[in-house]
Amino acid sequence: MDRTQAQELLSAVASGELDPADALDRLATAPYDTLAHSLVDVHRELRTGDPEVVYGAGKTTAQVLDVVEALRAAGDRAVLITRAAPETVHALQAAHDDVFVDGTTVTVGALPRGRGTVAVLAAGTSDGPVAAEAALTARAFGADVERVDDVGVSGLHRLLAARPALDRADCLVVVAGMEGALPSVVGGLVGTPLVAVPTSVGYGASFGGLAALLAMLNACAPGITVVNIDNGFGAGVFAARVARRTAR
């Protein structure tokens, strides 16, 4: 149940079109849907403005399909699935018509109207999968998205050429591996809210993204928020909420 559905329910009670007992029966099933393997939080959109997301890693294809069905039945928003295995992606495409896939990130259902703009910058092509997760997450969470790819610090002229996209955005997601320097550079160019995403891209001394994470946490440029290594999803949620609030 989302806020619109709850408002319609309360309006129907207020106007006398719906008996309070019937409304109570509908609300009684709102908090979560009990499946054989999961308790699906169908009340989350009413509380936070955003529905529950399906984390695909570690789940079987059948479990993902079950949770998606429960979320689709509970609301009108697109269902977001992250870290979906190839066989799960294929099963979702077979089961639903309105499926969009970007790497391991999938949406099922019509995406919401965008409010505000998130620009997702990727330092290199190898950072693309994490940037894709951030971009589709931000789009599913209700923001318009602009991608800026392959603008790492080894060729700063590429970043400067993308300056108009930075200026248009209400929030920036900056994705980088190796030494993780790109968020500091971008943070020194603009005053836009910025969330940095370290990736596990790099050679041995990058320690699976730890070097980039520490570099971003120690950024000289102020106003940078940092999420965990490879956490494009968390960055996309943060950026979409900032962009939506700014647009409102």
Describe the overall structure.
The protein has 248 residues and is of the alpha/beta class. It folds into three domains: 1-30; 32-108, no CATH class; 117-247, Rossmann fold (3-Layer(aba) Sandwich), CATH 3.40.50.1970. The chain contains eleven helices and eleven strands. A five-stranded parallel sheet has the order 8-7-9-10-11. A four-stranded mixed sheet has the order 3-4-6-5, with helices on both faces. Helix 10 links the parallel strand 10 (194-198) and strand 11.
* Silhouette: globular
Number of strands: 11
Low-confidence stretches: none
Arithmetic mean pLDDT: 87
Question: How does CATH name the architecture of the largest domain?
Answer: 3-Layer(aba) Sandwich
| Rg | 20 Å
Name the helicity range: 40-55%
Strand fraction equals 15-25%
Q: Strand order of the main beta sheet, please?
A: 8-7-9-10-11
What would you call the structural class? alpha/beta
